[in-house]
Amino acid sequence: MLSMTGFGRAEAEEQGNRVWVEVRSVNNRFCVVNVRLPELLAPLEWRVSELVRRHIARGRVEVTVDWKAKRKPSLVADLSLAEAYRDSLLELKKSLHLAGKIDIPLLASLPGVIVEKRDEVIPESLWELVKRVCQVALDEHLRMRKAEGEKIQKDIAERIRLVDEIVQEIEKLAPLEVQQQRDRLNSRLQDLLVSRKIDEQRLAMEIALIAERSDVTEECTRLHSHNAQFLKTLSEEGPVGRKLDFLLQEIHREANTVGAKADSTSISHLVIRMKEEAEKIREQVQNVE
């Protein structure tokens, strides 16, 4: 089992290029990958994103790639832009009767006039370095997710077993609850109809039917089944979060039905305990891939 929360970091240097990569993730219903790169490496965004998606099925993932080249930057002047700035400044100076000169320091300080020359094609060797560092960061990220996942798995398993124990307690009380319900109904009807002629056999059948509606045997059986399936799913390989979430919804639904049927304070208290544990499990499942 893997948690959706994790962190990994790696760096490496090769042929004058130094690359740093950080991978962070939190829980999300889907796989959302956001990659931040230096402007010169922007064309690699889709490659990095695809690499991450091969390792992560669910979660919101933030990947930060930094790069530094041990070389003098190659700068170029955008003459067309510089001319446009100059013409606009001259017009502004003339229209507003402003003093001052338009010189090289002024033009060079304006955005986009002096820029670093960008290679049209990023060398494949640089991509291989970025990919390798990303992989190391993802491996570290995976180790953290596994460690976190093991803790979550242990906690959930203990709580599911506790839920199953609560169901067993309900099963012990349920037959007595049904009998008490039957006795109460019989007593009330006898009091109401004591002065009337009634079909006692028909009355007994009606009482039995009403009492049967308070029987939670089927719900308890399904709860045991869901709990067993839940424990089995916890040990499965691959993403299991969605399946666990579905099973938890079924457990909650059956618990609600038991609570609605129960006319016993003892059983009602047990149902409340069961739903409290289910809510704690739900909080953990939300962070499972």
Give the SSE map.
Layout: E1 6-14, E2 17-26, E3 31-36, H1 45-53, E4 59-69, E5 75-77, H2 79-96, H3 104-108, E6 114-116, H4 124-192, H5 200-212, H6 217-234, H7 241-261, H8 265-285
Parallel strand pairs: 3-4
Antiparallel strand pairs: 1-2, 2-4, 5-6
Helix pairs in contact: 4-5, 4-6, 4-8, 6-7, 7-8
What does this protein look like?
The chain is built from eight helices and six strands; from the N terminus they run E-E-E-H-E-E-H-H-E-H-H-H-H-H. It has a four-stranded mixed sheet with strand order 1-2-4-3. It has three domains: 92 residues, Ribosomal Protein S5, domain 2, CATH 3.30.230; 42 residues, no CATH class; 139 residues, no CATH class. It is elongated, with a radius of gyration of 35 Å. The longest helix has 69 residues. It is an alpha+beta fold and 289 residues long. The mean pLDDT is 88.
Keywords:
289 residues; alpha+beta; Ribosomal Protein S5, domain 2; 3 domains; 4-stranded mixed sheet
Can you give me a brief rundown of this structure?
The chain has helices at residues 45-53, 79-96, 104-108, 124-192, 200-212, 217-234, 241-261, 265-285, and strands at residues 6-14, 17-26, 31-36, 59-69, 75-77, 114-116. It is α+β, with helices and mostly antiparallel strands. Helix 4 runs antiparallel to helix 8.
Q: What order do the helices and strands follow? A: EEEHEEHHEHHHHH
Largest sheet: 4 strands, mixed
Number of domains: 3
Name the beta content range. Answer: 5-15%
Distance between the termini: 8 Å
Mean pLDDT: 88
**SS summary, helix count:** 8
Lateral arrangement of strands in the main beta sheet: 1-2-4-3
What's the total count of β strands?
Answer: 6
Helix content estimate: 55-70%
SS content category: alpha+beta
Overall 3D form: elongated
Using the CA coordinates, give the radius of gyration.
35 Å
Unreliable residue runs: none
